[in-house]
Amino acid sequence: MNSKLARTIFTYPAVDNHAHPLLKASHKDHFPFEGVLSEATGEALKEDSINSLACYRATKQLAKLFDCENDWEAVKTKRDGMDYEELCNLCMKSTGIQCLLLDDGLDSDGITEPFDWHDKFTPAKSKRIVRIEWLAQNLLKDRMKESTDVTLATASALLSSFSSDFDKAITGEAQSEDVAGFKSVACYRTGLDVSPVSASLEEIEEALMVAMKRYIATGKLRLADKAFNDYLVRVTMEVAGKYGKPVQFHTGLGDNDIVLARSSPAHLQPLIAAYPQTPVVLLHASYPFTREAGYLAAVYRNVFLDFGEVFPCVSAEGQRAVVRQVLELAPTTKIMWSTDGHWWPETYYLGTLQAREALFEVLEESVRREELSEEQAIGVAQRALFYNANKLYRLGLEPDLKFGLKTSGGKTW
């Protein structure tokens, strides 16, 4: 395994093109640690996820990192007893990530660190990925607090002022040096069948009115009404295309809040075709719809395919199958890796180690079969880990080979 291909894949500096901030030390126990392994919730998370092949493998890898017994509860006990800063450093410094692109719209309660706090772990400054539904909700909240009488007329007035503010906000973010791109979670809200054709003004107003009533009744604002949500996506696609900023879409793998039948990236095809100047990134390998995503990346110039989150949520064999499906059809200039790291530093560690392992095993097999030369395989790996994301997000980086890993997964290179 001491081949040039192995050394490259396990040590090359990487751009993590989609992740989320870590929890603050004061909130490090805010969520069940089993969330490292699974998007499930409740008993399905606490009782079932720990009996998956993904958990058995992650437990072994974390036990090795923490130098403790190969047991899930032992891993939890060991990490709970560690100084939080020490824990973060141990996990993050073992990844070889040169630059982080962070979607900081997952946290509405102030429990995570700011995006630039993460700069301590990487040679390059972190960049933001702006979640458009989160941005829209923040713009709407204050105005909705002033609305007690919800009618079509009040919704119409609100939409008029909001439209101007949202366009300005999206444009401002697109012009910011701290922002690498945008993200939509339409998949979670109304599905990926986002209409490229504008709904009537009345339909958008009615959708906003429903959101207003729900906010007044519950005190919580969650934009989940199709005409309005589709409108947000179209505005973003237009502005992002103008400024050359990619728009990421959550596709496939998620928690039980997703309607799986509407999470296939195939639903995005009309929108992709309608905005050919706007780069679109399909997140999470669109698992289990990876082949559909690969097809879109192959036939549309503006589509790129991220293969993240399946590390560590899917078994080792499943991960290898995902990487193979990514490579079946998608051009190797259009694929990008990510951790989907979030909340816990262990998600970054496992997301990196397991991705490097799967990428090596798949490419090494192709070299053995003489389908690729070793140099070609090395080029594929370097593009997937670094160069494709560096180019798409206009990061202007050079791979910091001095920063690259000298050890990975217990092996020294």
Main features:
globular; TIM Barrel; 10% strand; 413 residues; alpha/beta; two-stranded antiparallel ribbon; 8-stranded parallel sheet
Write a structural description.
This protein is of the alpha/beta class and 413 residues long. It has helices at 4-11, 42-48, 53-66, 72-80, 84-92, 132-145, 152-175, 186-189, 201-218, 226-243, 269-274, 290-299, 310-313, 316-329, 345-368, 374-392, and strands at residues 14-19, 97-103, 127-131, 179-184, 247-249, 280-282, 303-307, 335-337, 407-408, 411-412. The protein has a single domain (4-27, 34-412), classed as Metal-dependent hydrolases (TIM Barrel). It contains 16 helices and 10 strands. Strand 9 and strand 10 form a beta hairpin. Helix 12 (290-299) runs parallel beside helix 14 (316-329) and helix 15 (345-368) runs antiparallel to helix 16. It is globular, with a radius of gyration of 21 Å. Residues 195-395 form the Amidohydrolase-related domain.
The residue-averaged pLDDT reads 93
In the CATH scheme, the class would be Alpha Beta
Helix content: 40-55%
**Cα distance spanning the termini:** 10 Å
Whole-number tally of structural domains: 1
Overall shape: it is: globular
Low-confidence stretches: none
- Under CATH, the topology can be stated as TIM Barrel
For the record, the CATH architecture stands as Alpha-Beta Barrel
Could you give a short account of the major beta sheet? Answer: 8 strands, parallel
Topology as H/E string?
Answer: HEHHHHEEHHEHHHEHEHEHHEHHEE
Give the percentage of residues in beta strands. Answer: 5-15%
Spatial strand order of the main sheet: 1-2-3-4-5-6-7-8
* CATH homologous superfamily identity: Metal-dependent hydrolases
Given helix and strand content, the structural type is: alpha/beta
Rg from Cα: 21 Å
- Count the DSSP helices: 16
- Number of DSSP strand runs: 10
Pfam families: Amidohydro_2
Protein name: Amidohydrolase-related domain-containing protein
InterPro entries: Amidohydro-rel, Metal_Hydrolase
Domain Amidohydrolase-related: 195-395
